[in-house]
TrEMBL record:
Compartment list: Membrane
Keyword vocabulary terms for this entry: Aminopeptidase, Disulfide bond, Glycoprotein, Hydrolase, Membrane, Metal-binding, Metalloprotease, Protease, Signal-anchor, Transmembrane, Transmembrane helix, Zinc
Cofactor annotation remark: Binds 1 zinc ion per subunit.
Enzyme class: hydrolase
Keyword Glycosyltransferase on entry: no
Site residues (Transition state stabilizer), renumbered to this chain: 538
Name of protein: Thyrotropin-releasing hormone-degrading ectoenzyme
Residue intervals of the Aminopeptidase N-like N-terminal domain: 158-342
Gene designation: TRHDE
Length: 1035
């Protein structure tokens, strides 16, 4: 029964009822009519003396009764006042700590106390004094009180939550009643649990069914740790079960976390929905709870809402109760054991489509009615069914719930959230219109879905014990993005190829900074949690898992994962649990490797090594292998001053092969564990070359002596196919980054890419494009930029002419067999247009002009973003206005995204400033898209200083909007600052950091190191690079 129903069916609460309830709780007896009535009742007639005696007795009894009544009333009043003082820590005075919600839930919570600031309400004097006395007592003990500690005390464990909610969409408020069944592990008179930005109406604690209530002395919020404290008159007994009941209300926030609202427009009418985002620490904003991953419990949810809406949660609806006043209450089935941050619910008026897996799991996709009608969710729905079947087979553990809902929402802080049984996606990452979506967009949608579905096992079913090991779920989900996509599209070779450029190369840029951090890092308190959700956890975690799978062997690795999930399902696990399980899997096949010993060096140390392989000039077949920590800026201050870079050491599974002009040997593995080692390579010929980290399965870079680099460059020029496509991409990325950090001469990477005119595979071109991008941004505002520009155009020209432009493919299937070829063509066109190829510019302008004149978009899907950006950059303001108009009119989310990004390509600084200012208007640009606008303007050399200035001026607004959302602030800080490269910009950055208010300290320290490295490169290597380029262009 929902809270509102229960409240309406209660009799009115009278002062006498309150007094009786308070007296019973205090252990006294109520005033019943029995013996007291007898003392004052009629008596037989008797003598006057007896009458006088009786009168005196009656008078005495009357005085006694009045005295007793007075004492009782005083005790009751004191009791009520005592409870009011406790309640005053969170709300207006109530008649009793056990009082009802009194109809207040239908009012905005601000009627009694703003939910946003409950902690700031003035406390009753007595309660505040008692709280101070208690804190002083803890100080005397030289201990922090349980509510001031960074982690919840361990004396209680929640077993089950019964949560009843009423959502009022007309004023964006909700009321709730939560009943938590608690198991007592250690005696205590304190109940400490998380609650934040809500208004507590009433609190009650009761023992199990065998006994009555436990009196609540007082309650208060402790905002520093976002907890709510219930102080009891006596300690809870060990191994007993108690029920904690809390009645509360709060706002459905207009932000991105907790229980928040969003909207969309359908047929000219704005419609609203409300949805949750609890990870990592925001369930406490929607209901009082033990909001740490280790506190797994079962949940029974009921949601009352207007009948014009529907409600969703993790489990299917068991029953729906309809009321005469147009409201309905949905009662959901009980969940399995799960952590609070995977709980979810939504109230919306979406429609859905449905499919069923072979094992009977019902899969539904909910979205705006017009998107469902167009079939925009069909692709996601179909691959979800296939992927559940794939994961069930791969892990040998069935999907654990009867259903999985995919919910597409207009506004969300992240691409998606893997809530168990109710995964939430921002529309851009799940809705796909085949008639106007590119291969790249399809790939993006696919990989986000693969990622979130993997979490149904790694995260939902088996949850990390604590946030320090968040990579245990995010690293696996990111790795399986590529494995799962290979299952759907076997010819795309995602895990063996695209993983390198999109994960390995990208995260090594970040992890090569002195300000990096280990993939497992200590997390003490809630404010530390946000910083562990970064690309180190996601992408480095994935890269280490891939390295582990390769040196274990994929079949043994798969067997170990099956054991790990089976052992720990519905529970929590730490990294050592994984290492132990994988070590046992290796033992079963006769191998003995201490996985923990190896992997601790990779997960508990920051950064990664660069392996240097030198030929020995005096002894044949002997090579010298050394390792050191790779850093871009050797002058940067180490994050841990007690450890210099020389103290870092890894156990490295180095795969190695030798080759010559016509063939390459099979690979051998060498475990490198010392700073420097000598190894004999039997097949190493004098004229041959050597190649390390075969197919780039290891998480490290490889450097060689100059002679070996020359031999590899010669091999690429003569017959590049002798070296695998993965290693060709790896050589390009390693060379560019080794040169940027000063390990190699600046000309080596530019000489390597000369062979690209003969390269027919996508991956090396993609690696080159990604490696050239940061170098381009270092040079794009220099006076000699045209020299670099011309060199790149020469390398691209012949392949651009060979491949040409794609034909209009509106009538073709989106998923083409020629994925690799189409992606190669796209990469070459992007490089040609970006660096100013005249034909490319003319083609883009022609396609844009045709669209404007005919009002029919015939631009090929796979290059639309390139054409839009190039057209906006080259053509006049009318083109910008045309793209702006199309951005507003289109309803296709994939098209909306690339149109918005194209607007940032303009050379007109006035238009860029206009766009920056519009980006903060949520009615024009969605909150999650505003960051992308600012970052893309910063990447434009004509807008870099504008974005940097805008960022500084609007920092307080930006930090208030995105400060609590994982990734968003760090993404913004990095995106705006990563290509600043002058001494003046460095000074501006440091001065801003001194004066700014708010978080993101880690992001800013990383930004300073990045800009310092940029300035250092300009000072040390820019002229060397231009000198070589001039010589090269004259030959």
């Amino acid at each position: 029964m929902a809270l509102e129903e229960k409240r309406e069916k209660r009799p009115p609460v009278t002062p006498m009822m309150i007094e009786e309830e308070a007296a019973l709780r205090n252990g006294s007896r109520g005033l019943t009519p029995g013996p007291w009535a007898e003392a004052a009742g009629p008596r037989p007639r008797t003598t006057e003396r007896h009458i006088a005696v009786h009168k005196r007795l009656v008078l005495g009894f009357a005085v006694s009764i009045l005295a007793l009544l007075a004492v009782t009333m005083i005790a009751v009043l004191l009791s009520v006042r005592f409870e009011e003082c406790g309640a005053a820590a969170d709300g207006p005075p109530r008649a009793s700590g056990n009082g009802s919600l009194s109809g207040a839930a239908r009012q905005p919570p601000g009627a009694g106390q703003p939910p946003g600031q409950p902690e700031e309400e003035a406390r009753g004097g007595e309660a505040a004094e008692e709280e101070e006395e208690e804190e002083e007592e803890w100080q005397r003990r030289q201990e922090l009180p349980p509510w001031a500690r960074p982690r919840l005390p361990r004396h209680l464990r929640p077993l089950h939550y019964n949560l009843m909610l009423s959502a009022f969409m007309e004023n964006f408020t909700f009321s709730g009643e939560v009943n938590v069944q608690l198991e007592v592990r250690n005696a205590s008179r304190y109940i400490v649990l998380h609650a934040h930005r809500m208004h507590i109406e009433a609190v009650r604690v009761a023992e199990d069914k065998l006994a009555g209530g436990v009196r609540v002395a007082r309650t208060f919020f402790y905002p520093q740790t976002q907890v709510f404290v219930v102080v009891l008159n006596r300690s809870l007994e060990v191994q007993r079960s108690y029920n904690l009941k809390i009645i509360y209300n709060a706002l459905i926030e207009n932000e991105l976390l907790g229980f928040f609202r969003s909207s969309y427009v359908l047929h000219g009418e704005r419609r609203f929905l409300a949805v949750t985002q609890f990870s990592p620490t925001h369930a406490r904003k929607a209901f009082p709870c033990f909001d740490e991953p280790i506190y797994k419990a079962t949940f029974k949810i009921s949601i009352r809402h207007q009948a014009t809406y529907l409600s969703l949660s993790n489990m299917p609806v068991e029953t729906s109760v309809f009321e005469e006043d147009g409201w309905v209450t949905d009662h959901f089935s009980q969940t399995p054991l799960m952590s609070t941050y995977y709980l979810a619910w939504a109230v919306c008026n979406f429609t859905y489509r449905e499919t069923v897996t072979k094992s009977g799991v019902v899969v539904r996709l909910y979205a705006r009615p017009d998107a469902i009608r167009r079939g925009s969710g069909d692709y996601a729905l179909n691959i979800t069914r296939s992927l559940i079947e794939f994961y069930e087979d791969y892990f040998k553990v069935p999907y654990s719930l009867p259903k999985l809902d995919l919910l597409a929402v207009p506004k969300h802080p992240y691409a998606a959230m893997e809530n168990w049984g109710l995964s939430v996606f921002v529309e851009q990452r799940i809705l796909l219109d085949p008639s106007i979506s590119s291969i790249l967009y399809l790939l993006d949608v696919t990989m986000v879905i693969v990622h979130e579905l993997c979490h149904q096992w790694f995260g939902d079913l088996v949850t990390p014990v604590w946030w320090e090991d968040v990579w245990l779920k995010e690293g696996f989900a990111h790795y399986f993005e590529f494995v799962g996509t290979d299952y759907l599209y076997p010819g795309w070779n995602m895990e063996k190829q695209r993983f390198l450029t999109d994960v390995l190369h990208e995260v090594m840029l970040l992890d090569g900074l002195a300000s990096s951090h280990p993939v497992s890092q200590e997390v003490q308190q809630a404010t530390d949690i946000d910083r562990v959700f970064d690309w180190i956890a996601y992408k480095k975690g994935a890269a280490l898992i891939r390295m582990l799978a390769n040196f274990m062997g994929h079949s043994v690795f798969q067997m170990g994962l099956q054991d790990y999930l089976t052992i720990h399902k519905y529970g929590n696990a730490a990294r050592n649990d994984l290492w132990n399980t994988l070590s046992k899997a290796l033992k079963r096949v006769g191998k003995s490797v201490n996985i923990q010993e190896v992997m601790d060096q990779w997960t508990l140390q920051m950064g990664y090594p660069v392996i240097t392989i030198l030929g020995n000039e005096t002894t044949d077949n002997i090579i010298v292998i050394s390792q050191e920590r790779f850093v871009y800026d050797s002058d940067a201050k180490p994050k841990d001053p007690s450890r210099g870079d020389n103290s870092y050491l890894w156990q490295i599974p180095l795969t190695i092969a030798v080759g010559n002009t016509s063939h390459i040997s099979s690979e051998a593995i060498i475990w490198v564990s010392n700073k420097s080692e000598h190894h004999r390579i039997p097949a190493f010929e004098e004229a041959g070359w050597l190649l390390g980290n075969i197919n780039q399965t290891g998480y490290f870079r490889v450097n060689y002596d100059i002679r070996n680099w020359r031999l590899l460059i010669n091999q690429l020029t003569r017959n590049h196919e002798v070296i695998s496509v993965s290693n060709r991409a790896g050589l390009i990325d390693d060379a560019f980054n080794l040169a940027r950090a000063g390990y190699l001469p600046q000309n080596i990477p530019l000489e390597i890419i000369r062979y690209l005119s003969e390269e027919k595979d996508f991956l090396p071109w993609h690696a080159a494009s990604r490696a050239l991008y940061p170098l381009d941004k270092l040079l794009d505002r220099t006076e000699n930029y045209n020299i670099f520009n011309e060199y790149i155009l020469r390398q691209v020209a012949s392949m651009y002419l060979k491949l040409g432009w794609p034909m209009n493919n509106l009538n073709k299937s989106l998923v083409q067999a020629s994925y690799q070829h189409e992606e190669l063509r796209r990469e070459v066109i992007m490089l040609a247009c970006s660096f100013g190829n005249k034909h490319c510019h003319q083609q883009a302008a022609t396609l844009i002009s045709d669209w404007i004149s005919s009002n029919r978009n015939r631009i090929p899907l796979n290059v639309r973003d390139i054409v839009y950006c190039t057209g906006v950059s080259l053509m006049d303001e009318d083109v910008w206005e045309f793209i702006w108009m199309k951005f507003h009119s289109t309803t296709a989310v994939s098209e909306k995204k690339i149109l918005l990004e194209a607007l940032t390509c303009s050379d007109d600084r006035n238009l860029l400033n206009r766009l920056l200012n519009l980006s903060l208007n949520s009615e024009v640009v969605l909150d999650q898209d505003a960051i992308d606008v600012i970052i893309h303007v910063a990447r434009n050399p004509h807008g870099r200083d504008l974005a940097w200035k805008f960022f500084r001026e609007k920092w307080k607004i930006l930090n208030a909007r995105y400060g609590e959302a994982l990734f968003m602030n760090s993404k913004l800080v990095s995106g705006v600052t990563e290509f600043l490269n002058t001494e003046g910009e460095l000074r501006e950055l440091k001065n801003f950091i001194k004066s700014y208010e708010g978080g993101a300290a880690v992001s800013f320290s990383r930004a300073v190191e990045t800009v310092e490295a940029n300035v250092r490169w300009q000072r040390l290597y820019k002229e060397e690079l231009f000198h070589w380029l001039r010589k090269s262009l004259t030959h």
